[in-house]
TrEMBL record:
The record marks 354 as: Important for serine binding. SUPFAM superfamilies: Class II aaRS and biotin synthetases, tRNA-binding arm. Pfam families: Seryl_tRNA_N, tRNA-synt_2b. Residues 204-378 form the Aminoacyl-transfer RNA synthetases class-II family profile domain. This is serine--tRNA ligase.
Length: 397
């Protein structure tokens, strides 16, 4: 979620001032929401809930102060042996505690409503993002590689069957539509899966996982093959940076470059596009897509998404960044006990980027490296395949 302070007008009263919100250029939430083509009413509702929560919180603190003062008065009366008056004050505390419990419940209820609504507001869109609802207006930033433009090239679905590297029929039998099994080619190729030793010298790491998504794209699109499926494997870059300066944006560019280098090494032509504001998910302040060239369809298709979510996710997860200060809880414990001041506490910036979704990358490799007799193995992959340079077709369609 974004900082609730961005929804405050600085005015008094129970309702946010729409005119003031629109006139303040520093009021980023309104302008960002409009760039996402989302309704103003959501922002105004958050602002109203924030006013209500702060008022209830103030009233709660007043009741607590009243209870504390009454408790101290009881102590003084008892010390002065004024038992009768002390008992009157003790009776008064019962009523105060009832009001306190009711107000605490009201504060909690208002805070839950505020946080729930706040989660529906997207991150502040970066100023460099193109304002549009139409993804055809995505800006192409980089184009690399020589595209194959021949006619009558086979698509990856046909190539998988001709190479006999995937079992689509059994996949559908076991797990219904958009399912498949990739055949493990250890027998004809040797021990090609024993590749992990070569990764020991990596100094930077990424996460590998099996992923599953219920919605696998538009109905009727890419129903055959392994491009758009329910279950797939992915290597994901994930970075946490300082919120200060330009550090997260420098990391954003570095992560995109990592993905570009990966596809350059595979020899797959691609382009990088900046996604328009209306197509950003709620968490992203800015997003780049890397799209690979698919010769059979004569089009670029998405292989990588890279997003800078700034502090949007960190705020909800309460992942903080703070410098050491001169405030020390226990001087005898040394430097480890120094803690950041509350007013210096910041939320980290969090970024994520695909390096590769393996099934989609396989599709692009098959279409790019196909020949009349089979598929050439990219030079970068040959060491992991026992030196094999070419995989012939084993059946005709």
């Amino acid at each position: 979620m974004i900082d609730v302070k961005l929804f405050r007008t600085g005015g008094e009263g129970g309702e946010p001032d729409r005119v003031l919100l629109e006139q303040r250029r520093t009021y980023m939430a309104v302008h960002s929401q409009r760039r996402r083509f989302a309704p103003d009413e959501d922002v105004l509702e958050v602002a109203a809930l924030d006013i209500a929560w702060r008022k209830n919180q103030y009233d709660l603190e007043e009741i607590r102060r009243e209870l504390n003062a009454t408790s101290k008065a009881i102590g003084r009366l008892k010390a002065a042996s004024n038992q009768e008056e002390a008992e009157k004050q003790m009776e008064a505390t019962k009523e105060i505690k009832e009001r306190l419990a009711a107000k605490e419940a009201e504060v909690h209820e208002t805070k839950v409503k505020l946080d729930t609504k706040l989660l529906t507001i997207g991150n502040i869109v970066h100023e460099s993002v193109i304002v549009s609802k139409d993804e055809t207006n995505n800006a192409t930033l980089v184009t690399w590689g020589e595209r194959r433009m021949e006619e009558n090239l086979r698509n990856h679905f046909d190539l998988c069957r001709m190479l006999d590297i995937a079992d689509f029929e059994k996949g559908v039998t076991v797990a219904s539509g958009r399912a498949f099994f990739l055949r493990v080619m250890v027998k004809p190729w040797g021990n090609v899966l024993n590749w992990h030793n070569s990764l020991r010298n990596f100094t930077r790491y990424a996460g590998y996982s099996t992923c599953f998504r219920k919605e696998a794209g538009s109905h009727g699109r890419d129903t055959a093959g392994i491009f758009r499926v329910h279950q797939f494997e992915k290597i994901e870059q994930f970075c946490i940076t300082s919120p200060n300066g330009n550090e997260s944006w420098e990391m954003f560019e570095e992560m995109v470059q990592n993905s570009q280098d990966f596809y350059k090494e595979l020899g797959l032509p691609y382009q990088v596009v900046s996604v328009v504001s209306g197509a950003l998910n709620l968490a992203a302040a800015k997003k780049y897509d890397l799209e690979g060239w698919f010769p059979a369809a004569q089009t670029y298709r998405e292989l990588v998404s890279c997003s800078n979510c700034t502090d949007y996710q960190a705020r909800r997860l309460v992942i903080c960044y703070g410098q050491k200060t001169n405030r020390c809880v226990d001087k005898s414990a040394g430097d480890a006990q120094f803690k950041p001041r509350k007013d210096e506490q910041q939320f980290v910036h969090m970024l994520n980027s695909t390096l590769t979704a393996t099934e989609r990358t396989i599709c692009c490799i098959l279409e790019t490296y196909q020949t009349d007799d089979g598929v050439e193995v990219p030079t970068a992959l040959q060491p992991y395949m026992g030196g094999i340079e070419f995989v012939p077709f084993v059946q005709n369609l």
